[in-house]
Amino acid sequence: QNTTTYTIMFSWANDKLSRLSETLAPPPDTPAPRFLAALASGDENAALGVLRENQYDFRHSPIKPRGVCALHVAASYGCLDVLRELLNAGVRVDYADHDGRTALHHAASSSTMSPPTALAAVRMLVEECGADASGRDVGGMTPYDVGSNQAVRGYLLPRQLQEETRREQLSKANVAAPPPPPTMMTNNNNGGQQQQQQQQQGGTT
After folding, report:
1. Could you give the 3-state DSSP secondary structure of residue 56?
2. 13, 15, 128, 185: most buried, per Cβ within 10 A?
3. What is the number of H-type helices and E-type strands within the chain?
4. What pLDDT is attached to residue 170?
5. How far is CA 43 from CA 20, 36, 195, in A?
6. Using one digit for the tens of pLDDT, what is the confidence trace for 74-111?
7. β-bridge mates for residue 64, sequence order
8. Dist. CA 60–CA 54, nearest whole Å
9. How far apart are CA 190 and CA 67, in angstroms?
10. How many Å apart are CA 73 and CA 35, to the nearest integer?
11. Which phi and psi (to 5°) does residue 68 adopt?
12. How far out from the chain centre does Cα 48 lie?
């Protein structure tokens, strides 16, 4: 009983200390936490300011666990101006995190946005930025498969099927195409000798 009591007391004290440390923690003053805080509060201008004042230094670096970078977080919050800024700064639209999830996966699966906002983010990534609607994560899931609402899934499914059909047709065309004929390499010296021999033969006949 004493052991159980001590365990409960220790757990309670540890929880209190953890909550106290979070309360007393200083506000984020490094670029990545400031960027995350701005996105979480919906302040795109502040997020853009962090990006610009730091010359996009962390645009390719993971800023959350599992290799999640700035593009993925911006997509999950539906911050379209931030997405455009990052893509214009050279971040690839299909850059994937450690789980193989792209910005389109993050936008489609996000539960932090309303359906219209999520759909707007997904449409922008596909139509403006060329995101691959058929891309699969390490578990084989496409953005459609992880879609969080019907509007997003209804938009993604025909585009996934269209891309998969296009790839299948391209693959079949490559298989059916005959191999190119072998290139005949002619030695100039040999060619000259053959021509000379033919001339000699013609002269003797």
Report:
1. coil
2. 128
3. 9, 0
4. 86
5. 27, 10, 81
6. 999 999 999 999 999 999 999 999 999 999 999 999 99
7. 68
8. 13
9. 62
10. 10
11. -75, 125
12. 20
pLDDT digits (tens, 9 = 90+) for 162-205: 999 998 888 887 776 666 676 655 555 555 555 555 555 555 44
The DSSP secondary-structure symbol of 126 reads: I
> Position 139: which residue type?
G
Amino acid present at 13? A
Tokens of 161: 């099927």
Question: Cα torsion for 78, 79, 85, 89, to the nearest 10°?
Answer: -50
> What is the C-alpha separation between 92 and 86, in angstroms, rounded?
9
pTM: 0.71
Task: Give CA–CA dist 80/86, Å, rounded.
Answer: 10
Mean of per-residue pLDDT scores for the chain: 82
User: In this structure, what token pair is assigned to residue 58?
Assistant: 């962390």
Q: How far apart are CA 62 and CA 83, in angstroms?
A: 16
Segment 46-73 shows an average pLDDT of: 90
- 106, 75 Cβ separation under 8 angstroms: yes
The answer, yes or no, to whether residue 50 has pLDDT greater than 70, is yes
Q: ∠ CA 66-26-39 to the nearest 5 degrees?
A: 50
Taking the C-alpha atoms of residue 80 and residue 97, their distance in angstroms, rounded to an integer, is: 19
> How far is 26 from 21, CA to CA, in rounded Å?
9
With tokens 């003053």, the residue in question is 29
